[in-house]
Specification:
globular, three-stranded antiparallel sheet, four-stranded mixed sheet, 49% helix, 430 residues, Alpha-Beta Plaits, alpha+beta, 18 helices, single chain, Hypothetical protein af1432
């Protein structure tokens, strides 16, 4: 358990919920009502790391526990900043509620299906979350009863609240979301790289003269560890070669489900229907169980194409796509298929394989993912007696030596065509 001492008397509640990281988390009456709403309870049925449990069996924790953790962490930070005079006491519950609701827009299987949502529906989970907060009938009833402005809650999640500091607590390099998921994901995967000195961070974080989050110079090592832990977790968990292969496979399954069996996915087969389900209060039924049940039904009733059934069987039996090319690239500039020759070569390799060998499009998948290690716009600042500077400009910090971006370049292929593809791309090597 993470030992985080209370820094505020504001956290007394009508009930306590036990968390595996922080122990008992007290919740107020209105917070409890929000947590008990169907769209938040839905997060119990969405795994935080989607299919990562195929590699790390313990990674079966949920978006629900993470959301409670974010609510708790943002409450600790807010409580400290209230006592220092930087945040209004009346906004304490507002910030915690934003923390509890920040992930309500996640699709089933999280980022796996969100790859499809982003590409075809042109919507991100943060945008869906704000739509839910402003339109879900259950939440609207709670907000109305307790005189909470849903648009103000959603503005914090979107990072556009009139108080810039409020946005930083949930949308910055060192925010409550990142703090909790590094700790929680590290615990459940067993990957030690994500462990951070959270007690030091939470009890020294403050606000500088510019109104931005900062830590004193004596805590710079704890923040450096945070950035480095995030970099390692990115490589070891979030974009682990095998985990990413199953995420890509799930995205392709979902695409085939929509194109072949869209009626079974209704009302979640189009963006307009998803938004309608939010307004009429049925969005909470769209969870991991819904998709898993449909995949089972496809096999039981012999629905859809041979391609779809084959992919589902492979996924359920833990046989994923295979990487025939795999490279980690550190760079000063962003890596995209338009600007980087190595990334572009993956697209060219796919075109060559499909045209020469006649395979179907879903069988060959270029994979280009990038992480900005330190976001210059929202990075934490370091304070000494006279001034504060961004950690990227603090001469005594090792963060100044880190590359700006880390990119992962891969070419995944269907497992049944692996050996044949290898024979034709021998010149493509990392």
């Amino acid at each position: 358990m993470v030992k985080v001492k209370s820094v505020s008397t504001l956290s007394k509640g009508v009930k306590s919920i036990y968390d595996e990281l922080y122990g008992y988390i007290p919740v107020s009456e209105v917070e409890l009502k929000v947590i008990e709403s169907p769209v938040v309870q839905r997060l119990r049925r969405i795994k935080q790391l989607a299919l990562a449990w195929y590699v790390y069996p313990g990674a079966v924790h949920t978006r629900f526990s993470h959301s409670l953790g974010v609510m708790h962490v943002i409450g600790i930070i807010a409580g400290k900043l209230i006592e220092e005079g930087y945040i209004r006491r009346d906004d304490y519950e507002l910030l915690r509620i934003a923390g509890a609701l920040h992930d309500v827009g996640h699709a089933p299987y999280s980022h796996a299906i969100e790859l499809y949502m982003t590409n075809y529906f042109r919507i991100k989970h943060e945008e869906l979350a704000t739509y839910i907060i402003e339109n879900d009938p259950y939440l609207n009833e709670i907000f109305s009863k307790y005189s909470i402005n849903p648009k103000e809650v959603s503005s914090i999640i979107k990072g556009v609240h009139k108080e810039p500091l409020y946005n930083m607590l949930l949308s910055s390099d060192l925010d409550a979301d990142r703090i909790d998921y590094l700790l929680r994901d590290s615990l459940h995967t067993g990957v030690a790289y994500g462990m951070i000195d959270v007690d030091r961070i939470l009890h020294t974080i403050t606000v500088d003269k510019d109104g931005e989050l900062a830590v004193p110079a004596k805590s710079v090592q704890a923040v450096e560890n945070f950035y480095i832990a995030r970099m390692h977790m990115y490589r070891a968990v979030y974009h682990h070669k095998t985990i990413a292969a199953f995420q890509v496979m799930m995205r392709n399954i979902y695409e085939l489900l929509i194109s072949e069996l869209g009626e079974y996915l209704n009302p979640y087969s189009s963006l307009s229907n998803i938004l309608q389900s939010i307004r009429n209060g049925t969005f909470y039924l769209w969870d991991d169980n819904f998709i898993a049940g449909l995949m089972n039904l496809v096999l039981i009733r012999n629905l859809g194409s041979d391609d779809l059934r084959e992919l589902i069987k492979l996924l359920l039996n833990r046989v994923g796509y295979k990487a025939v090319y795999d490279k980690i690239k550190l760079s000063a500039e962003p890596v995209t298929v338009d600007s980087d020759e190595e990334a572009k070569s993956l697209i060219d390799a796919k075109d060559m394989i499909l045209s020469r060998l006649g395979y179907k499009d879903y069988m060959v998948i270029p994979y280009v993912e990038e992480l900005s290690l330190v976001d210059e716009d929202v990075c934490v600042k370091v304070m000494d007696e006279n001034s504060s500077v961004k950690i990227t400009e603090y001469s005594s910090s090792i963060i100044t030596s880190l590359p700006n971006y880390i990119a992962i370049l891969r070419l995944y292929v269907h497992p049944y065509i692996l050996e044949n593809v290898k024979k034709h791309i021998s010149n493509l090597s990392p």
